Amino acid sequence: MGFPEIDSAVFFGSITMVTWGIWVVLGNAASESIDPRTAAAISYLVAGPLALGYVLVSDASLAITAKGGLLAGVAGLFTGIGLISMYVGLSGGSTTVVSTLGAMYFVVAALIGMIILGDQVTITRFAGIAFAIIGVALVSQ
User: How distant, in Å, are the alpha carbons of 79, 102, 104, 108 from that of 114?
Assistant: First the structure.
């Protein structure tokens, strides 16, 4: 009897969910033990070489265009701001509130997609965003 095939998006999305959940909890503990900005920097000092190592051992292309490199760099800038903000938030607030609000990044991305990038606005998407906001309000109480 073999294992059923799992969609790669579900598989890797599940890994992301679990590892980021653990990351927030450990980040909270680190922020209570040392300065949260230092904890954020250490996290990235570990994550950066891990990501680079994965690129080097995988079949990833090392070709970089000016546009792609710039976009990736700006994405990294926003990632860094979010990371530092999360650690500072964790040091002074509830893990439940900070992690739940931080996890709402997909709502920001969906709104940008619909408002700026021209993604279709549907009642289903609108309802999903509304339910996500209601969920955050309930969890953060």
Answer: 21, 20, 16, 10
